[in-house]
Amino acid sequence: MLQLFIALFLILTSTCFGEEIAEFCADFDKDPNEYSLHLTKNLEFAPNINWELSDSTICTTNSDQFFLEANYTIDAPSDSSMAEFKGGCVVFNNFTAENMTCINPKNVKINLAPSNRDILHIHKKNAKESLIPYYGKVINGKLKTKLPITSYIYETNFKAVIIGPCIKKRIVAEFCINKYHELVLEKELDYIPRYIFSTASECHFCNKNYKETLSFFIDFGNEKYIPLEDILHKRCEDYILNKNLKLPQAINKESFYNKDLSVRIDAKIEKNGSYSSDYYDFKIRINGPCKK
Questions:
Q1: Boundary of a domain, candidates 111, 130, 165
Q2: pLDDT given for residue 283 in this prediction
Q3: Which residues pair with 270 in a beta bridge?
Q4: Are 177 and 286 within 8 A, CB to CB?
Q5: 209: helix, strand or coil
Q6: DSSP 36-64
Q7: pLDDT class for 106, splitting at 50, 70, 90?
Q8: In the beta sheet, which residues pair with residue 277?
Q9: What is d(CA 73, CA 85) in angstroms, rounded to the nearest whole number?
Q10: 259 and 153 share a domain?
């Protein structure tokens, strides 16, 4: 009932403000006096009209990817000051590997996704209870991006809202099954949080002493996870779903149509010479046979 009320409120609020509103849900940490925010509805901002850059503009690059430095802040309920939340790297559409230039960066649209989409570990006493009065209330945010090695800076304000507690084991995406016995990505509903195996203060992409080895497993309903082909890959700091992957041949695909299945990521982590392991669970939905 609370979620329905907030949804109706957001529709009315968006109409009144005349603009879209970013939406977050709240995850509650092991510390009862902390919570995290997870972006559930993104915003897209038009490019800055002043970004009239020549084709010879040099950008920092690593592994064929250019960087757009970005950070944003929101006035989230907190008992302490909110630091800027920073990230991340984006890939420009037009890339010339020969001279490492950014081609037409003015055509790149900006949203909250290329930067870190999760804001973690906000201090709020008795977070789970004290956050309830803030659900559905519109708060202010500010996005700032910069093109490295240039003086071009893009700043804009936006509105945001915390819709309520996050749903555990969120359904991240919908897949269909094609005639080749493959899962084919149809629609992304959510995303894998960036810092599922580490703290938000660590930059893995720029740390040569950090390495994740990932393996994937799926539960087809008998509470026994079996190995699965790579369902995602890591780009910059983000986990990106693959467009298609093969299913185990022994699986009767018809029996899983219109079902939600649990997927597990197992991680073997090497950091500065020490080793650890961890896992993260999420869900996917199998809609049925692919139409094409």
A1: 165
A2: 94
A3: 211, 275
A4: yes
A5: coil
A6: EEEEEE--EEPPPTT----TT-B--EETT
A7: very low
A8: 268
A9: 6
A10: no
Q: What is the pLDDT of residues 55-103, one digit of tens each?
A: 444 444 443 444 556 677 888 898 875 544 443 444 444 333 444 444 4
Round to whole Å and give the CA distance between 130 and 95: 48
Token pair 């996917």 in the structure block, residue: 284
Q: How many domains does the chain have?
A: 2
> Do 155 and 180 sit in the same domain of this protein?
no
180 shares a domain with 133: no
Q: How many residues does the chain have?
A: 292
Identify the domain boundary among 165, 184, 209. Answer: 165
What's the whole-number average pLDDT of the chain? 75
Q: 190 and 144, same structural domain? A: no
Taking a C-beta distance cutoff of 8 angstroms, is the pair 89, 205 a contact?
yes
Provide the 10 A C-beta neighbour count for residue 151.
6
Q: Does 105 lie in the same domain as 22?
A: yes
The pTM of the full predicted model, rounded to 2 decimals, is: 0.67
For residue 29, the enclosing domain spans 2-165
Q: Please compute Rg for the chain using Cα positions.
A: 21
Using CA atoms, how far apart are residues 22 and 138, in angstroms rounded to an integer? 9
State how beta strands 110-111 and 44-45 pair. antiparallel
Predicted confidence band of residue 288 (pLDDT cuts 50, 70, 90): very high
What confidence score (pLDDT) does residue 101 get? Answer: 45
